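Record filed below.
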Amino acid sequence: MNDSDDGFTLVELLVYIVLSVVVLLIVGGIFLNSINAERTVRGVNSATNSGQVVAQSVTNGVRNSSDIKLTAPAAGTQLLMTRSVGSAATPVWTCNAWHVGGGQIRWKQSATAIAAPTAAELATWTVLNADIKPAGSTPVFALTARRIDLTFESKNGTSKAVLVTTSAASRQPPPAGADNPICF
């Protein structure tokens, strides 16, 4: 009988086991990295989507507004208010407000004037983004004439912050008649 036909030696078996463990560790590491990358991408994607919801809401509201007002009703908060007209054949005027504070941006629309909200009133406003912060020392809203600059960092839990920055200018003429609401 030939010695090469007897099977594996103990040394060969140990070498194969060690090589198998090394290959499994490499494959496992790649798998774990792909799971972490997917989690990061999902978080950033969600933060980006939330930021875009805010940007679209504010830019649409400002572009369709005939009047804009920005105030700081309390320390660390901002209140942007607009008077807007709809695109229907018979114009319908509405008051819109966006409140920034407590790491959130909230929105409200009304047919009548919107005042700076109390905490209880603010709880009834629509949350557009629940995890934001100013980008450095730049305020979230900055008003220049009839243009709003919007700058903030949007997050989703432990995801990396996404910088959202845009500007919008009013395309409507200032109000001339009494057929529109006094929003502020």
